[in-house]
Amino acid sequence: MATQQNTTRTTVTFPSNGMTLVGHLHAPEGAADGAPRPAVVVGHPTTGVKEQTADLYARRLAERGLTALTFDAACQGESEGEPRGLENPFQRADDFRNAVSYLTTRDDVDAARIGVLGICGSGGYAPYAAQTDHRMKAVATVSAADVPDFFRSADPEGFQEMVERSGALRAEEAAGKPATLVSAVPETVDTSTPAPVREFHDYYRTPRAHHPRATNEWVLRSADQLDQYDSYAGVGKLAPRPLLMIAGSEAFTLGHSRDAVERAGESAELFTIEGATHVDLYDRDEAVGPAVERLAEFFGAHL
Predict the structure, then answer these.
(1) FRET partner for 38 with CA separation of 20 to 30 A, picked from 64, 121, 292, 300?
(2) What are the structural domains of the chain?
(3) What is the pLDDT of residue 188?
(4) C-alpha to C-alpha distances, 190 to 91, 198, 201, 217, 289, nearest whole angstrom
């Protein structure tokens, strides 16, 4: 295990398609010497905020010598954008691109050594953005999820109904009505609640990780944009740049990582955390510890 360093966290802002995004820059204390260092952009899960698992991974990577930038996606958390809670996959990908652009302007970051890390939904958006943004020299994911595929597989008819309603909802917003929101995580669960939903509830709706800006709601008309998007259809474009996908052996989303790695070819690796579930990798140390060690090795080798 590498020697851990003390770190600093600074609040920063940067533009993304006309909106100001708010982020946290985590850096080793030694970064104050001004020498350009490799850096990693870390994206939060769908309906989450930077203060949760993204900041945890960023801090742990900074302890191992990397500068790491987290940010709230547009329309979410502290960042600008309306309607609040919009889950636009193309904007989410641009947020990663614009975060990289921000890092390239910093004297303490080596613009030729920037990587990206996406967690959960961001584990789809980061590889998608990197397919065409070759400034992203190394791409990694943790508990990656293809958001529209998740909705389709859980309730195909329900998702299609949301897509069909999206046009009418856009018209309502144009007429001045507020955006229609749906809850991603219920307030309460019981033994009849599907296990993945109970996992999310235990993380987002309890003191374990609850944050007031993580509303866990999303704009229903996001469905028509999600329906146009496929996280991994073009993942082979990443090669020869490396792709590392980390997933729990018991994660309900493991198939997303496995399929993406197969599509990506020889430059991709699937690293499995035995016994871990999808949400275990958000904050459980027995899962996060080995994931961070592998990430530090990966970015250390390729940045």
Answers:
(1) 121
(2) 7-146+230-302 (3.40.50.1820)
(3) 94
(4) 35, 8, 11, 20, 30
**Could you report how far apart the first and last alpha carbons of the chain are, in Å?**
19
Q: Is 190 exposed, middle or buried (0-12, 13-18, 19+ CB in 10 A)?
A: exposed
Tokens for 91, please give them: 């904007």
- The residue-averaged pLDDT of 119-130 equals 98
CB 48 within 8 A of CB 135: no
71: Cα separation from own chain's centroid: 10
Q: Does pTM surpass 0.85? A: yes
Angstrom distance (rounded) from CA 222 to CA 219: 6
Contact 52, 213 (CB under 8 A): no
Confidence at 32, pLDDT banded by 50, 70, 90: low
Please give the Cα distance from 81 to 101 (Å, whole number): 19
**Residue 255: what are its φ and ψ, rounded to 5°?**
-60, -30
Quick one: CA dihedral 136, 294, 301, 27, positive or negative? positive
The residue assigned the tokens 């939904």 is: 121
